[in-house]
Amino acid sequence: MASMEAYENDMRKLRRSRKRKRYIKNAVTVGVFIVIVMAIYLSRSLWLPELEGVLQRNFITGGNQEERVESFPIDISRKVNVLIAPMSDCLAIYQDNYLTTLDSGGEELFSSYLTYGSPVILTEGKRALAYDMGGYSFTVITKKSEAFSHRLDDQILYAALGDRGGAAVVTSTDRYPSLLTVYDKNGSKLYSWGDGNYITAAGFSDSEDKIAVSSVYAQGGSIRTTVRVFDIGKREIIAKTDPVETLALGIGYTGHGGFWLIGDTGVYYYDENCSLAYSSDYSYDISSYAIGDGIAAVELSSIDGKSSYVTLYSDSGEGTVQLDYQEKISHIDISGGMVYISTGSRLDCYSSGGILISSYSLGREYNSFAVVGENIYLKSYSSIEKYSLNDSGGIG
C-alpha cells in the first residue's frame, strides 16, 4: 500500500490534471490504488468550480456576531477547509474541524468537532456523512444530533450514504485492495465484502435493501468495470453486469429500480437485473457530473476549454438533451427533479427534459452552492450567503 504522503500528493496532482485517465490506467497496471483517485470525483465537495456572482433575489442578512454561530451572510474569510452540502431540511457546513447543521435563518442546530485532515462531506435525505479520506474515522449526523461514528483500523478510501441513513465505507487492507463494509442507520455492521480489484463507486437502492458496487481492473491495456448488486439482508450477490471498457466514477439508483453508471468514457443505464438498457460514449473529456431523481447530468469540456456541454439523461425514457455553453461551467447539481448549472455569469435551472425554468444573473465570485428546498446557499472565498429561488421577477 502506498504511503500516506504519496497518497495525498497523488490526490492533489489529479485534481489539477486533465490527464487523469492516462494516469489512472498506468496506476492500475502497476497496482496503485486507483480507488483513491476516484473518490475525488465521487464527492460533491471536491468539485471546486469558479462560480462568480450574486443572485439578484431576496437577500437575507443578519447582524455580525463573533461566535461561530451566525445568521446569513456567514463570514468564512478566516476559515479553512470550508465545505457546504444540502440536507433535506437544513444546511451542512464543515469548517475549522467543525461539522455543523444550520437552519434556514443561519442558526446552529448541531455541531460536532472532527479533526479530519482531508474531510469529505456526503449528504442524503436527513443525514450527512463526513469522513477523513486517507484517515481512519467517519461520522454520520442528523439535523440535531450524531447518529453514529467509527474509528477504523484501515485507511478510508471512499464512502457512500443512503437516503434512509445507511452507510457504506471502503477501506484498503493488507488482505484486500478494497474492503466494502455496510452499516445500518444505527451504525451496526451489516455486511463486509473484500474485492481483489478496486472499488471506485457504490450506490444504495431507494429502500437500502441493495447496494451496487463497481469493481475496476486492468485487462489487455484497458480499464474495465463490472458492477455487482448485493442483497444486504441476504448478504449475497444477486446480479452482476457484463464488463464495460470504462473507469467507474459514480453509481446512482433511480426510482425505477435501475441504476446509472457514470464512467470516464461514457454513461450507462442498467435495469434491476443488471442488463444494459442504454449507453452513450462521450465526445469530449468528462469534467463533472451529478446523479439524482432519476437524472444523470454529465458535463463535457471542449479541448480548448472555451466551451462546455451538459447532457441530461433521464430514466423515464424521455431521451437525451444537450445544453451548450460558450463559457466554463462551474458547478452542476440536481435537486427536486431540477438541474442547476452555474457559470461565471449566471445560474440556470432546467427541468429533466432540458427546459429552462429560470435563470439568475451573477455578479461576484463563488466556488460552491447548495440547494435546500426553495433556498440556495452560495459560498464564496469570504462568505456563505442565502437567497430565495421562490420569488417572482423573471430573469435577473
UniProtKB/TrEMBL annotation:
<dbReference type="InterPro" id="IPR011044">
    <property type="entry name" value="Quino_amine_DH_bsu"/>
</dbReference>
<keyword id="KW-1133">Transmembrane helix</keyword>
<dbReference type="InterPro" id="IPR043765">
    <property type="entry name" value="DUF5711"/>
</dbReference>
<protein>
    <submittedName>
        <fullName>Uncharacterized protein</fullName>
    </submittedName>
</protein>
<keyword id="KW-0472">Membrane</keyword>
<keyword id="KW-0812">Transmembrane</keyword>
<dbReference type="Pfam" id="PF18975">
    <property type="entry name" value="DUF5711"/>
</dbReference>
<feature type="transmembrane region" description="Helical">
    <location>
        <begin position="23"/>
        <end position="42"/>
    </location>
</feature>
